[in-house]
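Q: What structure does this chain adopt?
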Amino acid sequence: MHWIDRIPLGHLTLIALMLAVMPAIFPPHPEPHLVEKLGMLVDGTLSKPIDIFDLFLHGTPVSLLIIRLSRMVLPGHGQQNSGDE
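A:
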């Protein structure tokens, strides 16, 4: 998991935020795809391949950001252990 520690935090944050809110910043879309797809997942209506792809596309950077931040906070993880790759 050391490859996650090598991702620049600023870049990962920017990408995660952009994909988390897309396309809600454009007028015809009332809510972000990520919120819509998570709602479909909870409702049990996430069945179309394009919807599953959208969930992974918009959710992966957010998941990586959460993992990256948790590795920075938790002791014994992150860049302190760069010797055992």
